[in-house]
Amino acid sequence: MFEYVVMINREVSAPLSSQIYQQYRDAILKRRINEGERLPSSRQLAAGLSVSRNTVNTAYDLLRSEGLIDVRSGARPEVVALPEIEGAVAEDTVREMASPLSSRGKRFSLNHRYINPLGRGVSMQPGEPSRELFPREQWARSLRRSARLLNGNALGYEHTSGLPEFQRVLAQYLAQERGVVCSPEQVLAFPTTQSALLLMSQCFSEEGEIALLEEPGYLGARSAFFAAGLTVRALTEIEQVGRASLIYATPSHQYPTGRRMEMNERLMLLKHAHDKGAVILEDDYDSEFLFEGRPITALQGLSDRHSVIYIGTSAKSLMPGIRLAYAVVPKEHVEGLELAQRASGALANVHVQMAFADFIESGHFRAHLNKIRSAYHENGVALCHLIGERLGNQVGMSMPTGGLQTCLYLPENCDDVAVADHMNQRGFGVNPLSVFYLGAPQKGLVVGFAEANEKMRAAFVQALEQALETGRDRVQP
To answer: Structure pTM?
Structure first.
């Protein structure tokens, strides 16, 4: 009897009628009950399942409304004819027969990042800010204030590229702190830096053109360029390249090495971009964490501002989970990029935008930056000193001048992927440096230190000593 197709579970919240409907629906669509076969009468099914006839009738009405059964007075419901799906296969092979991704889909889904096969470590991940130092109470107050103040068009479909208050505060803040020259409407709010990179890559290049990326360089930019169908070349080859559509750079604090681009290099980069007709994507991801002196002026502020798109984020200064980034775009492209941004759906939460603006204007942001800058500096220096004391003859490094991560340089006879695998299996989410290169790689590790307290530093160095042995064993003689 077909009532045995249905198994009622009275311990779940789903209504009994919905359970009957869903299970019969699946059985009919998967051809376990065929065309012309009849289901039990409502009386029979109700008795068999110990439910009311009204429950069964409700389920049958849903099946009839979808055109799966025909119900006539005095007759049991009959399964109607359904069109055969060409190439229909058994349920266990459906996944294997799924439609393949398009060439564009394959480019988007291509992984450029390091993945440990046994899982990623959670401690000391590069670019990961300290959870303990996140200003929960002050941020919560700003969120509550934004929830009270936002109303009207701000909660609807207006201002999809950025709330006016957010744009005003960010334009003022970036002018004061980073030397960015822009009007408020040039500031577009994004959920992430990656979403901004993807949109700019699509909007400022044609498939097959050349994009230039720092060597070593940020893997998120590489992903965005490949997704746009671009040919990615190292920025070190800029003089050998004819025309380039995009150049990605982190001038204030190079990722992942931490190097700062000197002024003459910045000016030369602007000249190259002009000569090659390229748009520079300036990623200023963590310039707030310079440990000595003041950050130098952003590249955007040195340019004619038609060739540089400035990108910033709250992921390093607050938390990645806040999902708020921003891009300062050329004035002549504001309207077009706003439309493209809305079409892509890469829109930032309005309450988070308002809270971030309030957080800056209240002074909490500056106080928070001062606090974490000091803590991160202390942790980074202490980590490097400890590594130098214990492993100075095996590992090269430079003292961090800012940011959230540093590079450790390994001997050529050491497999940095094997070392990274070992460290991740012990809970430390480091990256192998070699994966950041397009050409001949340098062996090393990219290590986060924002949360590296004394206990964590000691455990890290102990694990690294063991990992170095693993890395040397993996290298073929």
So the answer is: 0.83
